[in-house]
Amino acid sequence: MVKFLQLNLNHCRAAQDLLAQTTREKRIDVAIISEPYTPKHIGVWHESLDAGAALWSCGQAPHQITQRMARKGFARAKCGRIYVYSCYIPPSIPLAEYTAIIEDIAQDAHGKSPVIIAGDFNAWATEWGSSRTIPRGTILLDILASLNVCLLNIGTRSTYSKAGRESIIDLTFASPDVARDAQWHVSDVYTHSDHFAVITDTSQLGSRGASRRLQHTGYKMDTRDLERLLPMVEGLGIRGDANSSADVIAETITNACDAILTKVRKGGNSHRPVAWWNDDIAKAQRNFRAKWKLLKDAIRRSKSRYFQELCDAADAEPFGLAYKLVMGRLCRQPMPTNPEQLKQIVLTLFPRQTPAIAPQLPAYGINDCALTDDNEVLSIAAKLKADKSPGPDGIPNGMETSATCADPEARQGTG
């Protein structure tokens, strides 16, 4: 069967160059790629319509990939007898578009078996080890539940790491007959990407241990000794039928090579590197990987130690640094800069209102005492206070009005 490697290259040229060597070292047949740098010209390449996902048949003898189909967000092809989907859905697209792509994948995969659906889905769900489930994770699980597939991700090993932040977003789904015997793991190989390589080995499907790669014997040609080799193969000729003659010739040459040349065992971990690979690059890769691991371990230890110190400080001083850090995270909001957004915020906080216009108060005569509310009473009182000059009868203006208004009997007597 087929051995797969899936990896998000993050549009990085160095990551794609290293992938060419990694596929040889790990004896990979087909690479399931997200965000490739550029199409490869060696082997067979098939990518999605938006070029965000690709399938690369990269083995020493590239597998023929048939029944190809490309859509936005994924590419599909048949490798051997397995239908393989390479998927990449960016984190920036709207939820409705994300749903449409997943539904498109499920609709195309319906009725196809065996199948592998793999790639970077940019979704979180507790089912594959995330700390929480987001809407994308729920959508992915609900839609793929209509297919007869299983999740191959095991454990809580992250597939993405950048600036101390880790997550599991590179996923592999497979039909039960593939999942039953497939070997899935996150590789420690250095990728020069912020994603880790994920390897799915289906080479044992159908016969556990029976279909392992044959251990072929080869020879180091720089150890050949023609002066000793030629005498051992002299006298070879065709005797009898073609099959028996071929067997005799093959056995004679094999015996001669075994006796003269240094053997090298092909298969297992042996590989033929890419043309530009050399010992200096291999050493630099090993050193970089070792230092990168030391850096990760140091960061993890420091974060753990600092968190414990914060917890101890919070016990001693509840409103100290730990409190300020938490409140700063909760209260910190980015300052909006978009003019339309700022305008909307201002209009919401300070809505426009129609200017208030004071009502026109009626003019009251001296003998008009029909006071209807407190405002009118205050208005009359102000007028009386302003005009206190004595009238013809020696009583200040307005006083007779007050007396008359205050005494109903007097009002009746004035007729």
UniProtKB/TrEMBL annotation:
Residues 82-198 form the Endonuclease/exonuclease/phosphatase domain. GO terms for molecular function: catalytic activity. This is Endonuclease/exonuclease/phosphatase domain-containing protein. Pfam families: Exo_endo_phos_2. PANTHER family: DOMAIN-CONTAINING PROTEIN, PUTATIVE-RELATED, ENDONUCLEASE_EXONUCLEASE_PHOSPHATASE DOMAIN-CONTAINING PROTEIN. The gene is Dvir\GJ26920. InterPro entries: Endo/exonu/phosph_ase_sf, Endo/exonuclease/phosphatase. Residues 388-415 are annotated as: Disordered.
